[in-house]
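At this stage, I put together a protein sequence along with its fold in token form, as given directly below:
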Amino acid sequence: MNDFITALRLEFEAYADPKIAAEQKAYLRNRFLFYGIKTPVRRAMQKPFLAKEYLPPKEDLENLVRFLWSRPQREYHYFAQELVQKYTEQFEKKDILLLECMITHNSWWDTVDSIATKLVKAYFKKCPDQRDQYIEKWLSSENIWLQRTCLIFQLLEKEKTDLKLLEHVINSLLRSREFFINKAIGWMLRDYSRTDSEWVLDFVERTELHSLSRKEALRLII
């Protein structure tokens, strides 16, 4: 594992660009440090690390990801979540704790949205009996990133969207004043309006949504 991390660090350092790093840091409101590697370059650079024949054993994944997530540079966090994507078919029940850790540490929309829509979605499909208990846990957590995950993990599910669950999640968060929650409510409804605009219109009419949520929900309809 140490060799894997050292090799990754050397690659990041080789591609580092201080000017780009400053711009990236400012874009995320100075919350994180960056090496300064644009996404297409980073993905090309890290491709060998994600090749099947070089992937670490699944039993090493948690420790590796937790270490990467503790690093200050944001590129490590992006790499870590893309690494976890390689193991979604091997998800076990205990892996929800790792996903929860990733959501609640070094949290911002740029990682949480990807974790929710790619990793949490895959986990709940692999371990459906875990879904409801973690949705309830996260809704009551008062952590906006866990709550946002509850809202958006069903994005792009179209007719497979669990509407009963979606209603429950939205209704549980109606009193929130958090921008990232109200934006996500609207985003989820707007996405589903592509599948069933009449359902979205009906839901908006009978629900006291925040003005931001309502505006976003109806963006493709009105």
